[in-house]
Amino acid sequence: MRIAAVACLVSFMALLASSIASGEPQRTPAEPPLAVIVAHFYPGYVPVTLGDLDPQIGALTVKDPAYDHSDRSPTAVRADFDGNGHADYALLIKQQTAAGSDEIFVILMGHGGGRYARAMESFFGPLSDDIYLGYLGRDTELRPAGAASDRIVLKAPAVTLNVLNHGSDVLLWDPSRNSFDSAPIPE
Predict the structure, then answer these.
(1) Is the N or the C terminus of the chain less surrounded, counting Cβ atoms within 10 Å?
(2) What's the predicted TM-score (pTM) here?
(3) pLDDT at 19
């Protein structure tokens, strides 16, 4: 039995060595388009676009440095929320049908190689044009209103779920609970 295991290992090492020696780059699976990822987990749903939102949101976010990166928009934020080295998605999605469309806020956790898992979802009902997403980078300090000593310094990026002219919730990864938690809004 040991001889068979050793022979198998030697064969694998020889195959790996010939692949490396040939100079061929090791291929990693391609990241599927966002619409394909959404359709996999939520058949019949598509990502919400900026055009689906209140025009005030576009005007409000166009100058906001939180959106100065191609992986961030008011409807989708791509960042490594849990610090595992793989990009995750926070998204607003809607049903493909236009009339009476339902909206859901979702977070999909990346596991590499185009693989994701559902981490959080919140159903809003009919498409709301005043809900949008924000981004808070690592090392951002969050402090509860009126509390001088209680503060949280983000160890990984976080996403904000905002309602135009009404307030926001910060959603951040809590490694001790292995889930998302809410936190106070930065002052």
Answers:
(1) N
(2) 0.78
(3) 46
Contact 180, 107 (CB under 8 A): yes
Q: What are phi and psi of 5, to 5 degrees?
A: -65, -45
pLDDT, tens digit (0-9, with 9 covering 90-100), for 68-121? 899 999 999 999 999 999 999 999 999 887 666 789 999 999 998 889 999 999
CA angle 10, 28, 14 (to 5 degrees): 15
| Residue 88 in domain | yes
Query: Looking at the domain assignment, is residue 122 inside a domain?
Result: yes
Q: How many structural domains comprise the chain? A: 1
Contact between 155 and 164 under an 8 Å Cβ cutoff? The reply is no
Residue 61 lies in a domain: yes
**Spatial distance between the Cα atoms of 161 and 134, rounded to a whole number of angstroms:** 7
- Longest alpha-carbon distance in the chain: 70
Say if 22 falls within a structural domain: no
